[in-house]
Write a structure and sequence with these properties.
Elements: H1 7-24, E1 27-37, E2 40-50, H2 58-69, H3 71-89, H4 92-107, H5 111-116, H6 118-137, H7 143-156, H8 161-178, H9 183-193, H10 201-228, H11 240-251, H12 260-279, E3 283-287, E4 290-294, H13 296-314, H14 316-338, H15 342-359, H16 364-397, H17 401-410, H18 417-434, H19 438-455, H20 460-472, H21 482-491, H22 495-522
Antiparallel strand pairs: 1-2, 3-4
Helix pairs in contact: 1-16, 2-16, 3-15, 3-16, 3-21, 4-7, 4-14, 6-8, 6-10, 7-8, 7-11, 7-21, 8-10, 8-20, 8-21, 9-19, 9-20, 10-22, 12-13, 12-15, 13-14, 14-15, 16-21, 17-18, 18-19, 18-20, 18-22, 19-20, 20-22
Length: 528
């Protein structure tokens, strides 16, 4: 049997292919030109051919360039890996998983849970939660932090790492594609297209429901097959790492105690959160066009102080779980209320890791040793993110990305409305391979697509929907997505095995996207 190339080899081959394209495709660039139409000043993008910059030796500097480009995500992964290694050393997450499984087994005595399957209920609830996060605030990079928590949970429940990644990353991706209120994709695209912010909400919400229904059914069917026969999992061998961690916890007697250091950490964090509560008594959460001012930080502080006290009376392990849950809640508040990104999130988890280590009465040297072990363990995932980033840099420096877009947009001339919206969807899907950033793609493509849709009598809202689906689905499979590569690296899933698993699902989603675009052309939808 022929051995499948390593993920690093696959990515380097793609870098070489990108370099070859810079020799074949002419260089080109879109430039902004200001014009006055009906007394209104507008800026339009005009394409001009330029000299392409043929890439040669740059394929060897792609890793260095990719590290520079993706430095934020790379440092994010390393900090998360080091912080969770410290926390994992306490066995708190393992204790929490075992306690959770004991609770769920008790629920199986109820008829409704026995009929539906308590595991199915848990998986659906987790998927819906992450899908909502993806649809409302565009959760993407943040999923990396949850992989380390929920993949071991999936393994302990009898599933595999693909299931663990699916209920987090894929679920968030489904929400991201549905993009009900995502300000980074729909917000930007509609703003550039001159549409009211988050207009057409009704049909977009319908699409989100349909997409998630199909996705949840697909994932549950796969999870059910693995649960019945774990050896059918394509990553059964790779999951031995997670199974060994679970077995080591089961075999090791956990000493339930609460050292003095844990009470000190509890007191310090309580004081810090109390101070923040006075400085930020209310947090404004913006969802779509509505905003709510809520006392989220004081409420979180009160819950931490209350739950932390009783957790410590039981064991430091449960206190660390309380600390983890509080960290997750603060992360959500920070992202939705204070526009946090990977720097703030990485810092938050880093502080959580240090605090959990001190609570376990670890010395400073022991904390450093554990952190470095975690960084070493997660380093391959960081390296592969840097290598994937080099693909885009090669194409950008060759000045061929705009030429590709120009060729594709020119192919839509003399088409009907349905054929045009379908071609827009295809173009956005192809462009997503070389421009994975939703906001950047909207800034580049919508100034071209929106005016073009006016010329043929196509709704700009439909054009935004084509962008939305083209931007969302393929993020779950393209090797140029740093988040996907980071997620797979942390979960220890080879890229080729992931592609083999998700490719049929991608075909279903892409076809579903075509079907959901038909009503935007053939029906009189509200907001369209």
């Amino acid at each position: 049997m022929k051995k499948i190339p390593h993920t690093y080899v696959i990515l380097f081959i793609l870098i070489v292919i990108a370099a070859i394209l810079t020799w074949i495709i002419p260089g080109g660039k879109y430039t902004g030109e200001t014009m006055i139409a009906s007394g209104v000043e507008k800026t339009i993008l005009v394409f001009q051919y330029t000299h392409n910059v043929k890439q040669t030796w740059q394929i060897f500097s792609a890793l260095f360039d990719g590290f520079q480009r993706q430095s934020g995500i790379i440092v994010f992964i390393l900090l998360i890996g080091g912080a969770f290694w410290i926390m994992n050393d306490s066995k708190a997450i393992d204790v929490g998983i075992l306690a959770f499984l004991r609770k769920t087994r008790k629920a199986e005595h109820l008829w409704i849970f026995r009929k539906i399957g308590v595991n199915n209920v848990i998986l659906v609830m987790i998927m819906l939660l992450f899908s909502i996060f993806g649809a409302v605030f565009g959760m993407s990079e943040e999923t990396i932090a949850f992989i380390i928590i929920l993949v071991p949970l999936a393994i302990a429940m009898g599933y595999d790492s693909i299931t663990g990644v699916a209920i987090i990353f894929v679920a968030a991706g489904l929400g991201f594609a549905g993009a009900v209120l995502n300000p980074f994709t729909i917000g930007v695209a509609q703003g550039i297209s001159g549409l009211p912010l988050f207009s057409g909400l009704g049909y977009r919400l319908f699409c989100w429901v349909v997409i998630n229904f199909i996705g949840i059914v697909y994932i549950l069917r796969y999870a059910g097959r693995v649960f019945k026969n774990p050896e059918r999992s394509p990553v059964f061998d790779e999951d031995s790492h997670w199974r060994k961690l679970s077995e080591s916890t089961a075999d090791t007697a956990v000493k339930y105690h609460s050292p003095l250091a844990s009470w000190i950490v509890y007191g310090i964090i309580s004081v810090i959160l109390t101070i923040f509560s006075f400085h930020f008594p209310d947090t404004t959460i913006v969802v779509g066009e509505s905003a709510s001012c809520l006392p989220l930080i004081p409420s979180t502080t009160g819950l931490f102080i209350f739950a932390g006290f009783f957790a410590l009376r039981k064991s430091v392990h449960f206190f660390i779980l309380d600390l983890l849950m509080t960290t997750v809640v603060v992360l959500i508040i920070g992202v939705m209320g204070y526009k946090w990104y990977i720097m703030e999130i990485a810092s938050l988890f880093f502080a959580m890791g240090i605090a959990s280590g001190i609570a376990m009465d670890k010395s400073a040297n022991a904390l450093v040793k554990l952190f470095l072990e975690g960084v070493k363990d997660i380093l391959p995932a960081a390296l592969v993110v840097g290598l994937a980033g080099g693909i885009i840099i090669i194409l950008e420096r060759g000045q061929v990305i705009d030429t590709i877009l120009h060729y594709l947009s020119g192919s839509m001339n003399s088409m009907g409305k349905l054929a045009t919206i379908s071609m827009m969807y295809v173009i956005q899907t192809l462009i997503n391979i070389v421009i994975p950033s939703g906001s950047a793609k909207a800034a580049l493509t919508m100034p071209i697509m929106a005016p073009f849709s006016d010329l043929i009598g196509l709704s700009r809202q439909a054009t935004v929907m084509a962008y939305q689906f083209g931007d969302g689905f393929t993020n779950m499979i393209i090797p140029t997505s740093p988040v996907l590569i980071g997620v797979l690296g942390v979960a220890r899933i080879p890229y080729d095995k992931w592609v083999k698993w998700i490719a049929p699902f991608m075909l279903v989603l892409i076809l579903l996207g075509f079907l959901l675009l038909i009503p935007t052309v053939t029906m009189n939808l509200k907001g369209f």
